[in-house]
Design goal:
The protein is an alpha/beta fold. The chain has helices spanning 68-77, 79-99, 113-124, 139-148, 167-173, 195-206, 241-254, 307-310, 321-326, 339-347, and strands at 9-15, 18-21, 54-57, 62-67, 104-108, 129-133, 153-156, 160-163, 185-191, 211-214, 258-260, 265-270, 276-280, 285-293. The structure holds flavin-adenine dinucleotide.
């Protein structure tokens, strides 16, 4: 299995040994490998996204391969199986963050608004990536930027390179922007993937309702920008907003709910048969028997000259790890005096 291939099959090892290979040197990357009774894959399998690791049989190996759709169907019927698979898949995604040598590499200047938008999109959607600042001075960054070229790009593995990246292009590249079949009618379309949309996605899926969440920016909404939520039932010591909504998204995907992003809903109409149809930013149309609008807030903007130009390049509407990095070695001013401002000030 190579980096960039669609995770379209479930691979269970019967006998043998499967190792992870470094895509650049071809060498085995870790001591540990996958043997009999273990299986390949990580959490992106649930949404059919792209594979981030190069894996190969180290010795003669026998596996069972099953198509993704069939395994998801089985997982929805056998909770013990799905709990086991999801626990392993989620741990593997966490591990990729810990290892820090992600297959997705973002090349671009930290001060470039377009690059910041891509990094925010990846970070808020919990895609592990490594970033190389074109203005950076450390030897590894200079070497990589010189080798790869001094233009903004997203690299996946060794073979694929995306020029002039935008969140939408990156989503297509990584298989997050699922191809939507325009003729398809869902039971339920949920507009907005904040806590309200994600909660609806979980309950719809668990009731066997075929649901699709359409999210404009990143699943998590406002909560995705909160470093700590302490008043959510079931988390007595608090949880970060990204973790909370990520768990919800995984839970919803487990029940078969699908997510598309970044896609903005721009129009709504009603068909003669009573179905609701939404129009997406690129003109695609999707219909559903019911529609749930969970679009949350639109931020008030300050009446400042050049505001639009600086949004995402110095003016931010959240204070996560990303924004903290973009503001490093500068002075940051937090405008506002409510909970979010206090949290941002503490965090920064
Ligand atoms: C920094 C911060 C800290 C917070 N801390 C807490 C806390 O500790 N406790 C607490 O209870 N609350 C907290 N909140 C508030 C809480 O996050 C919000 O009440 C909650 O996120 C609202 O959820 P929602 O799903 O209704 O809307 P939102 O979170 O606003 O999500 C709406 C989503 O809809 C998407 N969307 C909008 N328009 C479209 C469209 N046309 N097409 C597709 N998608 C669209 C947006 O991109 C967004 O992702 C905090 C908020 C912030 C900003």
């Amino acid at each position: 299995m190579d980096i960039g291939e669609a995770m379209d099959r479930f691979v269970y090892v019967l006998e043998g040994d499967i190792e992870i290979a470094n895509p650049y040197t071809g060498e085995r990357m870790f001591q540990s490998s996958l043997g009999p009774t273990q299986f390949l894959g990580e959490i992106g399998f649930l949404s059919g996204s792209t594979n981030y690791l190069r894996m190969r049989a180290a010795v003669d190996t026998r596996v069972i391969e099953a198509p993704r759709a069939g395994v998801l169907e089985l997982m929805s019927r056998v909770p013990e199986l799905s709990d086991h698979i999801i626990t392993v898949f989620a741990a593997r995604r966490r591990k990729q963050f810990e290892l820090g040598n992600a297959a997705v590499k973002v090349i671009g200047a930290d001060r470039d608004a377009a690059v910041q938008a891509v990094e925010r999109f990846l970070s808020r959607n919990r895609i592990p990536f490594q970033s190389y600042d074109l203005d950076g001075a450390d030897p590894e960054t200079v070497q990589v930027c010189t080798l790869i070229g001094r233009e903004p790009a997203v690299i996946l593995g060794v073979a694929t390179r995306l020029e002039d990246p935008t969140p939408r292009k990156v989503a297509q590249y990584l298989g997050l922007d699922l191809a939507i079949c325009a003729q398809r009618t869902y039971d339920l379309v949920i507009v907005g993937g904040g806590p309200a949309g994600v909660a609806a996605a979980v309950y719809a899926g668990s009731e066997g309702i075929e649901a699709l969440v359409v999210e404009d920016t990143a699943v998590g909404g406002q909560a995705g920008t909160s470093s700590r939520i302490e008043n959510y039932m079931g988390f007595p010591t608090g949880i970060s907003g990204t973790d909370l909504t990520w768990r919800g998204q995984v839970q919803a995907m487990k029940f078969g709910t699908r997510f598309v992003m970044p896609r903005r809903v721009e129009g709504l109409s009603r068909r003669e048969d009573g179905a609701y149809c939404i129009t997406l930013d690129d003109g695609d149309e999707l219909c559903a028997r019911a529609l749930l609008v969970a679009t949350g807030v639109q931020y008030r903007r300050l009446p400042l000259a050049n505001l639009e130009e600086l949004e995402g390049a110095g003016i931010f509407y959240s204070a996560t790890e990303m924004e903290a990095r973009f503001c490093a070695r500068t002075e940051a001013v937090v405008i506002g005096g409510g909970n979010s401002a206090g949290q941002a000030a503490m965090y920064l």
